[in-house]
Amino acid sequence: MNNLQFSYYTQPETIEDVDVLTEEAVNMSLIVWNDEVNTFDWVIDTLIDVCGHQREQAEQCAMLIHTKGKYAVKNGSYETLKPQKEAITDRLINATIE
User: Does the global pTM surpass 0.90?
Assistant: First the structure.
């Protein structure tokens, strides 16, 4: 009979911390601000045209803008909200992205 001896050498497992760059969809808000110039109808029509709101949703947003001074009418990525913000401000309604 053959006397073979096996020796197993295992390296200790190394755990590495690796930073992985991931694209995160940062949730931003499109804020419309109240003013004393624009009418409810103009703001409502703008929210319907620019943000795709239904009339009832646009009316509720307009009321909240009026009573609270500002309201987040839409959420999403900066890239999505930027053209909407520009379209709103082109209609002389104050809007920001936060």
Answer: no
**Cα atoms found within 13 Å of the Cα of residue 68, Cβ hemisphere only:** 13
| Cα distance between residue 22 and residue 17, in whole Å | 15
Domain residue spans of the chain: 35-97
Contact 46, 95 (CB under 8 A): no
37-43 contacts at long range (C-beta below 8 A, 24 or more positions apart): 37/92, 38/92, 38/93, 40/66, 42/91, 42/93, 43/93
State residue 36's pLDDT score. Answer: 94
